[in-house]
């Protein structure tokens, strides 16, 4: 019997799908936040709908990959038009979308940072990180040691895992001899007592700079003026680490140290790029110029994935980084590049640089008001529509993962109430202690939806504390 015959005329029910998933799917390629896992059937704007057609307000938008809302008509139409013209072409050939998208990104970076450079494409964020590691090694005569931050996350391929601070992503896969040296990141909410956030930032930079004081501090040979490490991988705002926003002086001061010792700054914009913070690139807020900038996720709003990197000309010109240095069958695919071009065009036309900070301020005000009513919210912060709420015990500081886990369960159960009807809430869990709600709503979220989100979070917290 054809395997499709049995269910040809009707959707398979959730119970059967979960039985099939349990039997036939690898569990290694996903994480189920609730048991049983949630199945969604359709989505639109800021909303996802389950089999019973219960609406769920999504406040994480596929880990910030769908910045412009589910089913964005303008972007979907762009994809449909491209399908009818040039849906596929091998990556060794050229097409207009590839060239125009590279030009658009390179010219945008040059206009903001004053550096000429080139764009190199891949498919997923971790793959683009891998390409950047090759680029950095090539530029540094094969150096394979990197700096990265405690709390940083750059992906789960082997190379990306080596610069991601969490050991659990490496534990079962052998020894990582070229694991990064992980440097403290200024975490304002959990700074040492008696320090301002800016003083804490200064202390973190001084601690890093100390590594170069003498040859016996471990990374610097003063006789030949050469560092053992090739690059520092940074997220301007830590993503999986809990949307931690450092003081505004931090990266400027850090970059001064890196430039002094010839160490490249590689900026990971995979989660925070494409107006999540109110700027096309989140590093724009911090007054520094990257040497390499890696992007992905929201470039295509989750449609036909595309990622890539920009690097300054000295690092990536065809003489030093020749054809075939890296390669992916699906990089610069015409569907992805068409949508990517439209994303950038749309972002500037609709002026997300103005609307995102305004919506973010409104959301942050709501979170602060919520914090006044729930002492378990230890910290709220945000930049644009990258927002955080740190869930603690009643002392307002001790991490409370268990409470947040209950909140996630209740939100995905879909039995919150609004206007007499059932409603759900989709949250993402992040943070060093897995106690932070990392909020990445659609950039097109309305003020009314933001107010609803605050009301639902209030209801959710109240229920979870009683559970």
Protein architecture, described:
With 467 residues, the chain is an alpha/beta fold. Helix content is 35%, strand content 16%. The chain contains 13 helices and 18 strands. It has helices spanning 14-24, 61-64, 73-83, 96-113, 125-139, 158-162, 197-209, 250-260, 313-316, 334-349, 352-373, 401-413, 447-466, and strands at residues 40-44, 47-50, 55-58, 117-122, 146-149, 181-183, 220-221, 226-227, 231-234, 264-268, 292-295, 307-312, 377-383, 386-391, 416-418, 421-426, 429-430, 436-439. It has a seven-stranded mixed β-sheet with strand order 4-12-11-10-9-5-6, sandwiched between helices. The protein has a five-stranded mixed β-sheet with strand order 1-2-3-16-15, sandwiched between helices. Helix 3 (73-83) runs antiparallel to helix 10, helix 7 packs parallel to helix 8 and helix 12 crosses helix 13. The protein is globular and about 70 Å long. The N and C termini lie far apart (48 Å).
């Amino acid at each position: 019997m054809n395997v499709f015959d049995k269910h040809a005329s009707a959707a398979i029910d959730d119970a059967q799908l979960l039985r099939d998933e349990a039997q036939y799917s690898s569990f290694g390629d996903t994480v189920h936040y609730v048991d049983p896992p949630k199945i969604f059937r359709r989505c639109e704007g800021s909303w996802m709908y389950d089999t019973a057609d219960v609406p769920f307000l999504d406040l994480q938008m596929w880990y910030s990959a769908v910045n412009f809302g589910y089913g964005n008509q303008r972007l979907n139409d762009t994809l449909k038009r491209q399908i009818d013209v040039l849906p596929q072409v091998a990556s060794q050939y050229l097409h207009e979308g590839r060239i125009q998208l590279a030009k658009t990104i390179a010219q945008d970076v040059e206009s903001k940072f004053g550096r000429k450079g080139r764009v190199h494409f891949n498919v997923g964020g971790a793959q683009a990180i891998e390409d950047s590691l090759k680029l950095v090694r090539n530029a540094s005569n094969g150096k394979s040691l990197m700096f990265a931050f405690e709390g940083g996350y750059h992906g789960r391929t082997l190379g990306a895992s080596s610069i991601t601070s969490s050991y659990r992503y490496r534990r079962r896969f052998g020894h990582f001899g070229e694991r990064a040296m992980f440097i403290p990141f200024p975490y304002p909410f959990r700074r040492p007592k008696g320090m301002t956030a800016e003083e804490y930032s200064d202390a973190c930079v001084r601690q890093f700079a100390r590594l170069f004081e003498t040859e016996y501090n471990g990374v610097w040979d003063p006789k030949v003026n050469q560092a053992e490490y090739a690059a520092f991988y940074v997220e301007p705002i830590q993503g999986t680490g809990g949307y931690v926003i450092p003081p505004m002086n931090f990266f400027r001061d850090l970059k001064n140290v890196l430039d002094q010792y010839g160490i490249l700054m590689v900026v990971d914009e995979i989660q925070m790029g494409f107006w999540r913070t109110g700027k096309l690139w989140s590093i724009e807020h911090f007054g520094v110029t990257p040497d390499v900038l890696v992007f992905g996720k929201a470039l295509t709003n989750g449609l036909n994935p595309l990622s890539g990197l920009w690097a300054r000309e000295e690092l990536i010109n065809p003489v030093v980084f020749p054809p075939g240095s890296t390669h992916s069958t699906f990089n610069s695919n015409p569907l992805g590049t068409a949508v990517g071009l439209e994303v950038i065009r749309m972002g500037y036309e609709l002026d997300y640089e103005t609307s995102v900070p305004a919506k973010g301020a409104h959301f942050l005000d709501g979170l602060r008001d919520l914090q006044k009513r729930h002492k378990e919210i230890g910290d709220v912060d945000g930049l644009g529509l990258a927002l955080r709420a740190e869930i603690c015990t009643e002392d307002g500081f001790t991490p409370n993962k268990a409470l947040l886990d209950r909140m996630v369960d209740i939100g995905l159960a879909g039995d919150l109430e609004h206007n007499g009807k059932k409603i759900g809430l989709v949250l993402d869990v992040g943070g060093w202690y897995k106690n932070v709600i990392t909020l990445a709503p659609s950039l097109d979220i309305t003020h009314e939806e933001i107010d609803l989100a605050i009301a639902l979070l209030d209801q959710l917290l109240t229920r979870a504390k009683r559970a």
